[in-house]
Every structure is written in C-alpha cells, then in structure tokens.
Amino acid sequence: MFKGIMGLLAGACLSAGAAPAQQGDPALIRAAVLRVDVAGLPPISRLDLRPADLGFAGARLAIDDNDTTGRFMGQDFEAEEVASTPDAAGAELDRLLGEGIEFVVLLADDATTLALADQAGDRAIILNAAARGDNLRGADCRFNTIHVAPSHAMLADALTQFLMWKNWPRWFLIEGSHPEDTGYADAFRRSAAKFGAKIVEQRVFEDTGGARSTDSGHVQVQKQMPVFTQRAAEHDVVVTADEADVFASYLPYQTWDPRPVTGSAGLVPRSWHPAMEAWGATQFQNRFERLANRPIREEDYQTWLALRMIGEAATRTGSGDPAALREFMLSDQFDVAGFKGQKLTLRAWDHQVRQPILLTTGNLTVSVSPQDQYLHQTSQLDTLGIDRPETECTFQEAS
C-alpha cells in the first residue's frame, strides 16, 4: 500500500514536467525560519498564549511534505529555526546568509520585515509570513520579498464583501491607538469606499497600558464598553481594528446597541482557522495536530505555505539551484496548493500571494471570500486587496 501511494506521488511529479534525479546524493535545498519575538503584555485571553513552537511547527510539517516528493526527485529539504529578539535579528540574518541560505521565511512586524528585506538585498528571498502592512506591498515594496501573509487590504476586503452581501452597509468603526491599528483601520476605510459601505462614525480606543483584564476583571469591562460605545450613530455592525489586541475581544455582547462585532473580534478574517474542514483541510489539520499536539494558528499555516512554495518550485523545475527556484516562483507559471479550493498564485506587481480569506468565529468558518457576486476580469482573488491599477509598488515586475 505504501509503495502504491508513493508511486502515485512520483507519477504526479513526472506529470508536472520534472524528471526524477539520478541515483546519488540528494540535492540539499536549505531555508530558514526567522521569528522575531517582541516582548509585551500577554494576550487578553490565556487561550491565545503564544506556543513556543509558533511558526516552527508549520515549518516542520512543510519539510515533511516537501521530503515526501523530494525522495523521488533526488532532493532533500531542511529549514533552520531561529527565534530572535529585534535587536539580534539583523545579526541572525547575516549569519544565515553567511551559511549560504537563500530562502528566509520571516515572522516579524512590518518595520522589522522591511529592515531585514533591505539588509538581505539580492542575497536571499524573504518570504513574509506575518507582516500585514499594505505599505510593504505598496510604497515600501521590495523585489526580494514574497508576501505569504495576507495584507490588511485583503482581510478588510474579504470582510467587507461579506458584510455587503448581508446588507449591513452602515459601520461603526473603532480603531486602536497603535500604528498597526491605524494601518488596519485605513484598510477598512478604503474597503468601505471600494464596495459602497458607509462608515457612520469612527472612534479611537486609547491604550492606557496596564495588564488588561487581570487588573480588574470582567466587572470593569462590563462597565467600560457600553459607555464607550453609547450614542453612536445608527449602524448595522461594529467593525474593529485592533492589531495590538487591546480592546476588541471585550466588545462582543458589551456594546451599547445590540450589534454584531467584526474585524479584530467576533467575525474575523483570517488566512487559516483550526476548524477549517473543506477541500481536504481535515487531513491537513490532523497531520499538524499529530505533529504539534495543538491546533494550528495562522503563523503556522503561513510558514507552512512559504516552505511549500519552495518545495513546489523544486518539484516543478527538478532543480535544487536557488536561482532557478527563485526565478520560477516569481514567474507566471507558478502556483501552489493550499487547501483553499483553488491554486494559489503570485501577483506580479507586488509579490503578494493570491488566496481566499476565511471569515471565522471562535469555533467555525462562517464563509470564505471572495464572495460569489464579486467578479474580476483576471482572477476573482484580485477583488481582495490592491489590484494592479491601484498599486503604489514600483519595482520591476517579473516577466
């Protein structure tokens, strides 16, 4: 049975146009996962505490998947795992580049991602598996960076399409006081204009510090949130932009008016969700949970997808040469499967991975965007995020 399955995999490799390598030592294809950890307050809920292997568990599953096909192709894959502080990240990147690693999956914030991409230059491809800032795909785009994580614009558009389908066009927008919150709120403002929603009122929730719910518990929150949200203009839905995880999770069932909460809490747009079951995702979830002994998180999925892109390029080209893999990944011939019902491809104008976005609650995937009624002349996935005519990215496109 095992040989039969592996034979089918080998046949799939051949049908993709790549021939198995000759007998001998396998070609080693090396990558690294660099996670830059920022010290801060714990999350609002202890259920959201960061696991020690966040991102790394996704990398391990991807390497297993790559090696399954790599055995027949004369290829061997590895990914070094590095957890760093912001101060040490530059030195760690230089060390990895000095070891000859030319693919670096990066889990970091927007500013660190941009700085490390500039530091890498033409020595490596940076696969951004965490940073969502639209500027990284726009005015601050870099040719050496592939964005596996969805952008703020993609997430906002995915949610907006669903809200408009529900006929909930009047929004009460609440944003946090951190720069990343403003970036997400700007994406919602742009998305509202794009799809015809109306933001009837906007408020900013100021982060005053402290240890959040542990200081005073639910009693204080129960008093604060209704007062904060009272006397808002008539609205259909509350839309929150709280990337810093300060306030949004407190809002459901605590707003002054009985309205759904969306955005950073309630109905949340995500790249992945541990309850996803369609399109073969159940098998993927089970394999991850056996490996990591926990449910998958978005950072794990995005890291897995980044490394699978490398593996797919190696399979399709039959090459272990980093330059050949990089050229193929940036070409219009590249696509990769991601358990989302369709092949995922790369936008030439900003190197963003096109992908459906899941709309989720705590336990369920409620819907998947793009919604059916939103069409596009090239790819329906390009209704999510910044399309070619709108881009501010000016690097030379891959042919």
From TrEMBL:
**Which SUPFAM superfamilies would you find in this protein's record?**
Periplasmic binding protein-like I
| Family that this chain belongs to | Belongs to the leucine-binding protein family.
The name this protein goes by in its record: ABC transporter substrate-binding protein
Species in which this protein is naturally found: Paracoccus spongiarum
The secretion signal range is: 1-18
Q: Which UniProt keywords apply?
A: Amino-acid transport, Signal, Transport
Transport among keywords:
yes
Q: Where does the Leucine-binding protein domain start and stop, copy by copy?
A: 57-361
A Pfam family hit: Peripla_BP_6
Under InterPro entries, the record lists: ABC_transptr_sub-bd_PQQ, BCAA_transport, Leu-bd, Peripla_BP_I
